[in-house]
Amino acid sequence: MSAALATYGLGRRFGSKWAVQDCTLSIPEGRVCGLVGANGAGKTTLLRMLAGLSTPTTGDLEVCGRRPCDDVAFLSDVGFLAQEIPLHKRWNAEDHLRFGAAMNPRWDDDVARERLTALQIPLQQPIRTLSGGQRAQVALALCLGKRPRVLLLDEPVAALDPLARREFLSSLATAVADGDLTVVLSSHLVTDLERICDYLVVVAASRTMLAADIDDVLASHRLLTSARRDASVIERDHVVLQRETTQRQTDLWVRLNGPVHDPAWQVNELSLEDIVLAYLGSQHPLEQKQQLGTVAS
Amino acid sequence: MTWLIWRQHRMQSAAASVMLAAFAILLAITGVTMANDYHNALSSCSQRGVDCSGLTLFRGDGAIIDLVNLTVAVPLLIGVFWGATSIGREYDSGTNVLAWTQSVSRRRWLAAKIATLLVTSLLAGTALSVMVTWWSKTLNLYHGNRFDPLEFDIQGLSPVAYTLFAAALGLLAGVAWRRVLPAIATTVGGFVAVRLSIENWVRPHYETAVTVLDPTVGKGTPNGAWSFNTDLIYKGQVVDGPVRVPTGCAGSGSRDAMTSCLQQHGFHFRSTFQPASRYWPFQWIEAGIFVGISAVLVAVAVYLVLRRDA
Amino acid sequence: MMMFRLAAKSNVPPYAQLAEQVRQALMTGVLREGDRLPTVKEVVGSLAINANTVLKAYRELEHEGLVEGRQGIGTFVLRRPDGPPPGTHVLLARSLATWIAKARKAGLRDADIESMVRSTLTSSTSEEATA
Questions:
Q1: Does residue C93 share a domain with residue C73?
Q2: pLDDT of chain B, 310 residues: tens digit per residue
Q3: CB A170 to CB C6 under 8 A?
């Protein structure tokens, strides 16, 4: 499977501060990729570079096999939904559909219009009178009507109530099921992403901590618990993300490179959220080791 | 892209057209009336053999005259309402990202936006200038003051050039600040500062002013010239303050007789001015300066939009 | 048409939950031979999950010989999983409800009931193994 999105040592600096550093990713086609990290971790900057809105300081990137550039061929392949959901407030949804038709050669009006009618979004009312959830759906319809090959969404559901959130993700999931679309959506909540994503990228403090299929991630990360004990063998054979030691007990959050032979360790599965937290909280210099990110499957 | 430009500008085009049309009607009516009044007054006074230079006309037209004088502010208004909002508002509301993530390149979008702004500003400025210049013909003849600062600003090429400048300034301010309100403030401040500076300190020097000693009796500063000052000189020194009229001249009848009497007593007049013949060259020079500044402003705006992150 | 549900905080992977719900539906008679399963798109739209999850569940069922995917048309039920007929299920469910009512009346909390069921399952399985 070819990569829909690929970055090589990508970095972006603002003044003296690096927003994204040393990012090397390869997201296969057809994936729904969740990009998770705290606010300020570099998610938005990464997405904007992928969309061609921001120029990298170092490194290289490819979307659908070509570098982001200011021409129709690239722009029509990539859809982007910014965090603030920018729309023309004084226009109505119908105006936005006309806008889409005027600005995109591959515009599929039926797709966009059906979406909005199915959700019963009034087409003639000004955008500023619509709810947050409805606006998000209009913006999504605009992105999908363009028929992109890659769709980038920056925290699309952060400001939505739970019902609107579910409806938005349903719409997105249906669009992906139609085929031929790779999606990257960012969030600072793992729970938003868990259901709909099959690929995960974790960023923390401008660095990429993890990039892998979710199934692989779940299969290869474990919590090892034992009565207080020396962990050096584990550390040698596997990647320890975090540790917690008390007087009586040692807990290790581990990315396994193979089976655990020592029966003294109790091996427990971890939820995706716990795994992500372990990566986000790990202050270990083993960040360097994780750079290439692909989990051994 | 055409649809987008139309959709974004339809309100302001309509409003501008209506206002220009209304203004045109007003000027047409008053202009024709004033021209008739003037010609009637001239022919009646020359028939009676009276000195026509003593006419007092247009006393009741103060309102329309003030309104026309106020058009000096129109270029700035265009700069604020059309220039500063052109791209500034897009950045402010994030719709620039919306536009740049469709399939139209940033370059094409920018070209369309700027072309629209410049063309509409040019059209508005030209329409305004044509109307005001036509209307002012009568007053120009009557007062002979079209070279004076305010009148120079609202007739001829000046309004067109100022409108382009204001639009370009507003455009750059909006692009630089990425927000409308600071852009408006900058446009107002910048426009006023540049216009006043050039008008007061640069325009007088487009060509070296002419200084004439004892101009033809009765003429003072030639009609239609831009007068800088007229000094009274006695024994080689400029006379400040009140003058004691020599007794021999006290009984002079007309102003011309008084003037030649003073001259015989050693008083001289020295006039510094720009002659009327230089009106159009000055118009072209000033317009050229403002168009040049506008080009630079637009170039900087283009650079910022294309090179900066969205 | 059957409706899927996903337990939010379950240790069971989503695809396994879906597959199990199909098996349950077949056991209780909600789904019968020849019925069409909800399309991937329908499931994805109602649950907001990844299409692969549904595909995986349907593939597993196909592997077990319970369903058959027909290209472009849908996924159809072939047969019921081995087990008691639907009627038995209903009878067993009823007697279970009666027992639960008795247990609650005796003062057992739901958690106690659950652990009792679990431990009985475990011990009876090992008994069968050794028997």
A1: no
A2: 899 999 999 999 999 999 999 999 999 999 999 898 888 888 888 777 766 666 777 777 788 899 999 999 999 999 999 999 999 999 999 999 999 999 999 999 999 999 999 999 999 999 999 999 999 998 888 888 899 999 999 999 999 999 999 999 999 999 999 999 999 999 999 999 999 999 999 999 999 988 887 765 445 567 788 888 888 777 777 777 777 777 777 766 666 677 777 777 777 778 888 988 899 999 999 999 999 999 999 999 999 999 999 8
A3: no
Q: Do B97 and A53 touch (CB under 8 A)?
A: yes
| Option in B1, B97, B104 nearest A86 (CB) | B97
Taking CB atoms and an 8 Å limit, are C50 and A198 in contact across chains? yes
Asked if the C-beta of C50 comes within 8 angstroms of chain A's C-beta atoms, the answer is: yes
Question: Tell me, what's the pLDDT at B219?
Answer: 52
Does residue B182 share a domain with residue B115?
Answer: yes
Report yes or no: C12 at the A interface, CB cutoff 8 Å.
Answer: no
Chain A residue numbers with beta carbons less than 8 Å from the beta carbon of C14 are: 195
**Is B20 part of any domain?**
no
Give domain status of residue C126, yes or no: yes
Nearest to A105 among B7, B103, B107 (CB): B103
- Coil/strand/helix, residue A291: coil
Q: What is the DSSP string of B212-255?
A: EES-STTTSSPTT-EEEEEEEEETTEEPPS-----GGGTT--SH
Number of H helices, E strands in chain A: 10, 13
Q: Which domain holds residue A69?
A: 3-205
> Which domain does B229 fall in, by range?
210-239+252-275
Contact A173 C6 (CB under 8 A): no
Task: Let me know whether A185 and A283 are in one domain.
Answer: no
Q: Which domain holds residue C22?
A: 14-77
Q: Please state the domain count of chain A.
A: 2
pLDDT at res. B252: 66
Residue B254 carries which side chain, given as an amino acid letter? S
- Chains A and B: how many Cβ contacts under 8 Å? 71
H/E segment holding residue B228? strand B226-234
CATH of the domain at A166: 3.40.50.300
Substitution target from A157, A166, A170 for chain C, most C beta carbons within 10 A: A170
Looking at A205, A227, A242, the residue that finishes a domain is: A205
- C38 lies in the same domain as C66: yes
Distance CA A74, CA A52 (A): 9
pLDDT at position A288 is: 40
Q: Which residues of chain A have pLDDT under 50?
A: 284-297
Neighbours of B120 (CB within 10 A): 19
How far is A119 from chain C, CA to nearest CA, in Å?
12
Q: Which residue of A has its CA nearest to C10?
A: A271
Is B100 within 8 Å of chain A by CB?
A: yes
In the sheet that holds B210-213, the strands lie side by side as B210-213, B267-274, B226-234, B237-238
In A, which residues are within 8 Å of B6 by CB distance?
none
- Nearest residue of C to residue A34, measured between CA atoms: C50
Are B135 and B79 contained in the same domain? yes
Contact A87 B95 (CB under 8 A): yes
Which residues, at least 6 apart from B87, have a Cβ–Cβ distance to it below 8 Å? B96, B110, B113, B171, B174, B175, B301, B305
Residues of chain A with C-beta less than 8 angstroms from the C-beta of B95 = 86-88
Which chain A residues touch C51 with a CB distance below 8 Å?
A: 173, 176-177
- C72 & C18 share domain: yes
Q: How many CA atoms lie within 13 A of C52 on its CB side?
A: 14
The single residue listed with the structure tokens 């013949």 is: B277
Domain finish residue from A205, A239, A258: A205
Query: Does A75 reach chain B within 8 Å, measured CB to CB?
Result: yes
The count of domains in chain B is 2
Structural domain contains residue B53? no
Q: Is A292 helix (H, G, I), strand (E, B) or coil?
A: coil
Token pair in block for residue A98: 């006309």
Tell me if B305 is assigned to some domain: yes
Residue type at B72 in one-letter notation: V
